[in-house]
Amino acid sequence: MSLLERLNQDMKQAMKDKNKQKLSVIRMVKASLQNESIKLGRDINEEEELTVLAREMKQRKDSLHEFENAGREDLAEGIRAEIAIITDYMPKQLTDDEVNDLVLAAIQEVGATSKAQMGKVMGAVLPHIKGKADASLVSRLVQQHLSK
Predict the structure, then answer these.
(1) 43, 93, 121, 144: which is deepest, by most CB within 10 A?
(2) Per residue in 61-107, pLDDT tens?
C-alpha cells in the first residue's frame, strides 16, 4: 500500500472517529505530498515521499523546540501530538548505534581523517539514513569521530 493510499484510508477513519487533530495532520501531509508532485510535474516516488515526511517532521520538531523555549506548553503539547501522528507514517527509525556504525563505515569508505572531509562523509551517509534518522545526529557523530 502506497503512502498516499494509507493516508486516504486513515483520513476516512479519522473522519469517522471525529478525530480532528489526526485529520488535520493527515490533510497537511497530503497537501505537502501533492505540492511536491506538482512542483516536480509528475507523481513522486517513495524516496521523495520520505523526503516530504522528513521535512514535515523537521518543521514540527523545530516548532516544538521554539514553543518549549518560549514556555508555551499548551502549544508544545499539540505539536507533540502531531509528531506522534507523523511518526506512524515514517519508516522504522535507526538506533543511535546503527547510525554510529553507518558513520564509521562511511568514514572508512571515503578515507576521511579530518573535519575538512566532513562533507564527503555526510554525502556517503545521508542517502542510507533518509527518513530513518535525524541528519543532525549524523552530523554530530561525524564531527565526533573526525575530531579524534
Answers:
(1) 121
(2) 999 999 999 999 999 999 999 999 999 998 888 888 888 888 888 88
Query: Three cell numbers at 106?
Result: 562511511
CATH class, domain 3-87, is mainly alpha
Q: What's the pLDDT tens digit per position in 6-29?
A: 999 999 999 999 999 999 999 999
For the chain, where do the domains classified as CATH 1.10.1510.10 start and end? 3-87
Residue ranges, comma separated, of all CATH 1.10.10.410 domains in the chain are: 96-146
SS3 64: helix
Distance between start and end Cα atoms, the chain: 45
| Reduced DSSP (H G I as helix, E B as strand, rest coil) percent helix, strand, coil of the chain, to 5 | 80, 0, 20
SS3 state of residue 98 = helix
For 26-46, the three-class secondary structure string (H helix, E strand, C coil) is HHHHHHHHHHHHHHHCCCCCH
For the 96-146 domain, the top CATH level (class) is mainly alpha
Q: Nearest CA to 62 among 83, 85, 91?
A: 83
Give the containing element (helix H, strand E) for 69.
Answer: helix 46-69
